[in-house]
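Reminder to self: tokens first, then the designed residues, so the page reads top to bottom the way the pipeline ran.
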């Protein structure tokens, strides 16, 4: 699919501009005709490509707004295809606009909304797709969408609080590292002649040696750090790398317990949300294990009766 921009007039003669996703220019003209628009000009947007190729995530606030608006339209009796059409026309240019257009095209082609969302893994997590699928099958999709919007808004609020609380400590850390690096690489060499012939403590010798190492080999240190990041980051993003990294986090003193409780609480919140929206136990466990690192790795392989699930709603409210 490609993204097309258009200029068209509606039945009142008012000129409208926008973009849509279609297989070809002729298909884009047919979409405009279905919307009751008379195309003046339709051209392919070479910059805006399919969301499957963009590789970007959307903001949580945009995703929550999409769920809220779609749920409101469905609750008002608007058919799914018409609701997606309305949302696609009012979305601003960006990833979410392209995604909404593609959802509409897939639903118009006969796919369910859950199947259409499943194609956009960077935008809609497996948890959201599973809840939407359960809502479609159970006939309470608008309720599920509103719960998803609330879930995403709470996550976005918590994330913003954490980022806000970390700005000042990270600023102090950056300033402190800068001061230390300037001291050991610029000021320390100027003081070395004063200590010539003196017996210095081992710590002082180590600081001087570290400063000399940074000054002499900085051309090798910077590419080495970049190369290490290129090798380590892909591994950490893989399932085995994430599992190993989170195992290290859980074994850290003091903060390890914090990471563990956060993981358990997140799993309980997700599991409680899924069970409360009609998802059966085993699919809920499979989806829930993707929301945490290794806390629930073994939980999904156990039977539904081996673990009590009555604690999930309690943890959902407590967290």
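Designed residues (319 positions):
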């Amino acid at each position: 699919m490609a993204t097309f921009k258009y200029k068209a007039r509606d039945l009142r003669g008012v000129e409208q501009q926008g973009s849509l996703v279609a297989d070809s220019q002729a298909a884009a003209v047919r979409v405009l005709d279905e919307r009751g628009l008379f195309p003046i000009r339709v051209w392919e947007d070479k910059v805006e490509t399919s969301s499957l190729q963009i590789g970007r995530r959307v903001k949580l606030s945009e995703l929550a707004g999409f769920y809220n608006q779609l749920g409101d339209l469905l609750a008002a009796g608007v058919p799914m295809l018409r609701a997606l059409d309305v949302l696609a026309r009012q979305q601003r240019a960006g990833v979410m606009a392209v995604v909404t257009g593609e959802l509409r095209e897939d639903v118009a082609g006969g796919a369910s909304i859950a199947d259409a969302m499943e194609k956009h893994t960077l935008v809609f997590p497996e948890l959201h797709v599973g809840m939407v699928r359960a809502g479609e099958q159970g006939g309470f999709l608008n309720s599920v969408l509103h719960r998803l919007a609330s879930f995403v808004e709470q996550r976005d609020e918590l994330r913003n609080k954490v980022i806000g609380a970390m700005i000042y400590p990270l600023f102090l850390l950056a300033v402190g590292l800068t001061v230390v690096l300037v001291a050991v690489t610029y000021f320390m060499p100027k003081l070395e002649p004063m200590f010539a012939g003196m017996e210095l403590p081992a710590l002082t010798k180590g600081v001087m040696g570290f400063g000399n190492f940074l000054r002499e080999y900085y051309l090798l240190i910077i590419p080495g750090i970049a190369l290490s990041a290129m090798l380590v980051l892909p591994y950490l993003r893989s399932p085995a790398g994430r599992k190993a990294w989170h195992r290290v986090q859980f074994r850290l003193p003091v903060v390890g317990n914090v990471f563990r409780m956060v993981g358990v609480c997140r799993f309980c919140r997700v599991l409680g949300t899924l069970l409360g929206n009609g998802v059966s136990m085993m699919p809920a466990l499979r989806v829930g294990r993707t929301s945490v690192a290794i806390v629930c790795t073994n939980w999904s392989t156990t039977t539904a009766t081996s673990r009590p699930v009555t604690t999930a709603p309690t943890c959902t409210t407590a967290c």
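The chain has four domains: 2-49, 50-193, 199-237, 255-318.
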